[in-house]
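step: validate -> pass
step: tokenize input -> pass
step: predict -> running
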Amino acid sequence: MKKAFVFFWLILLFSAIGYLFWYNDIIYQLPTPIPKNYKSVEIGSLIASNGTLDNKHGKPIFLHFFNPDCPCSRFNMKHFKSLVKEYGDRIDFRVVVLSPKSFTSETIQSKFDLQIPILFDETLATACGVYSTPQAVLLDQEQHLYYRGNYNTTRYCTDEKTSFAKIALNGLLKKQTDLVFSEAALKSYGCTLPDCK
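step: predict -> pass
step: emit ->
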């Protein structure tokens, strides 16, 4: 009788853990709801930034919209850092922190081992049409929007065929003007701004 009772509780415990994992996995595979007041920003639009994006180097700019409390943002960090390592000599990478909590540049750089500029300008999200994290935004040298969307279809960014941010980086560097992305690349997934729901 005692063994059956322990076995029952173990089954119940593992079922609960499995359910929580499944529920969280499903939640982060659903598209982020579009905010009621959302205004779409078309590809090719000039992104005005009131000096926040001062382009001193004349390189294209890659903005990584990031919330430290968003599980999707944290899953994505390794992939983002691999892009910085591969393209950092040709692209100006920056992290845009979007969170209701207060962070400093030094805190973000230290916690995530980043040696790139950290921005806290929420107006960039609106200017680029971003309403969830993580999101990738790629601007050409004149600060026109070249790409805004997801990094990949998989949570850990492991599928090379759908490595959308990398495809966009290669397209911009090769000066491709006819690059077309699927709905999976352009529909937002992840944590809703600003409070990571």
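step: describe -> The first helix runs from residue 2 to 27.
step: cleanup -> pass
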